[in-house]
Amino acid sequence: MDKNLTGIGNYSNSVNFFPQKRIDNVKGDLLHIMKRSDEGYVDFGEAYFTTVKYKVIKGWKKHTKMFLNLTVPVGTVKFYVRNNNGKNLRTFEIGPTNYGRLFIPPGYWVAFEGGEQAMNLVLNLASIEHDPEEAINEPITTFPIG
Questions:
Q1: Those residues with Cβ within 8 angstroms of residue 78's Cβ, 6 or more apart along the chain or in another chain
Q2: What does the pLDDT average to over 11-24?
Q3: Is the pTM here over 0.90, yes or no?
Q4: Which of 72, 73, 130, 138 is 20 to 30 Å from the Cα of 21, by its Cα?
Q5: What's CA 137's distance to the chain center, in Å?
Q6: Residue 9 pLDDT
Q7: CB atoms inside a 10 Å sphere around CB 78
Q8: b/e map of 39-70 (b: 16 or more CB within 10 Å)?
Q9: In 10 A of CB 100, how many CB atoms?
């Protein structure tokens, strides 16, 4: 873990799923994502959305410095997370029936798959700005999903 992050927010070295509030409202729902005081908040570098098409898998990617905080406000996405050596697969399906935030510290391999035929939208609240030099990419065949 980057020693410069010591004392910044609350974080851990393990992957965690944090259920989030989804408040239904006839005029439009409110979907909570993250507060500075939440577990998993490290720092703020950037926020971005990415889409993933139905039954398409994006991955594998391993960040070496970035802490990820992923949520799915639209659609359903299945996340596949493996430890540093590619073993110990864990899956998390996030969407309307299991709304929450997936916290992934650096050093884990991540892939994700669209679960709806309509739009599947992922939001990442990243701890650092995008840096193409800090991530490692591998084809999905490197670590079989099933």
A1: 91, 92, 93, 112, 113, 115
A2: 86
A3: no
A4: 130
A5: 16
A6: 54
A7: 19
A8: ebbbeebeeeeeebeeeeebbbbbbebbbbbb
A9: 20
Single-letter residue type at 76: T
pLDDT tier, 84 (very low <50, low <70, confident <90, very high otherwise): confident
Q: How many residues does the chain have?
A: 146
| Residue located via tokens 């939001």 | 123
Q: Which sign, positive or negative, has the C-alpha torsion 146, 86, 121, 54?
A: negative
Question: Alpha-carbon torsion 51, 52, 58, 63, what sign?
Answer: positive
Quick one: which H or E segment has residue 65?
A: none
Residue 140: band (very low, low, confident or very high) from pLDDT cuts 50, 70, 90:
very high
> How far apart are alpha carbons 2 and 67 in whole angstroms?
11
User: Residue 7 above 60 pLDDT?
Assistant: no
